[in-house]
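Researcher: I'd like a candidate sequence for this fold, 228 residues long. If you have to choose between options at a position, lean toward the conservative one.
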């Protein structure tokens, strides 16, 4: 509906310019606000299952575990993951430097599980994947070159399928999961905005709908006079 109204406005503006009409009636019609879709996310047991199911006995498996831990720990975009270089890591300070939309640089925090997984990958797997190449990329494919975004998307999809998850799971689902879990455990919206790298707080506010549903669920289960 909103798109149709916008198209009609443009058409009537054209008619005015061509002096075929004098007034654009559609300028008086307010475009209805499009309702934001709630982000798809995983519950804690689902993301834990995905992490546990990754086979860490091979170099690609160690790499995939590190990627999934990092996605969930830092809430970074898949495009930011593939751009990471070794020089972007500061594991002692529990930080990494990423370049988001518009090449905007920001520092994100990572947790101990992700740090352990990354260190294990670097020490035991990256050198084997590197072969004879000299790539500065953190995450490498089996030919020793920088891992692609598509490869990570396939890995996430396969890991979800292996766990028997019926919902569609993408790297962005893990980003949504990161934000949802932070808010569910008491983080404030402004902090989550900063961690996600959102320019506007309104972009982050979509997650409050999800956490409200979580609050209602917990309330209904926990309060003796709330059960239905």
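Model: Candidate sequence:
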């Amino acid at each position: 509906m909103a798109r149709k109204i916008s198209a009609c406005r443009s058409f009537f503006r054209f008619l005015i310019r061509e002096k075929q009409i004098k007034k654009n009636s559609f300028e008086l019609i307010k475009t209805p606000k499009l309702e934001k879709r709630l982000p798809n996310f995983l519950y804690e047991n689902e993301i834990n299952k995905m992490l546990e199911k990754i086979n860490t006995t091979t170099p690609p498996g160690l790499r995939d575990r590190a990627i999934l831990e990092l996605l969930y720990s830092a809430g970074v975009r898949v495009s930011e993951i593939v751009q990471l270089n070794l020089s972007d890591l500061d594991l002692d300070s529990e930080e990494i430097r990423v370049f988001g939309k518009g090449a905007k640089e920001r520092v994100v925090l990572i947790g101990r599980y992700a740090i352990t997984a990354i260190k294990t990958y670097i020490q035991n797997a990256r050198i084997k994947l590197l072969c004879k190449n000299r790539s500065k990329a953190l995450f490498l494919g089996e030919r020793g070159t920088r891992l692609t975004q598509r490869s990570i998307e396939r890995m996430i999809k396969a890991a979800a399928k292996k766990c028997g998850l019926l919902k569609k799971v993408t790297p962005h689902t893990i980003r949504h999961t990161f934000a949802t879990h932070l808010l569910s455990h008491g983080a404030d919206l402004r902090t989550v905005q900063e961690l996600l790298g959102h320019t506007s707080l309104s972009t982050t506010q979509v997650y409050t709908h999800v956490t409200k549903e979580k609050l209602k669920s917990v309330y209904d289960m926990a309060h003796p006079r709330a059960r239905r």
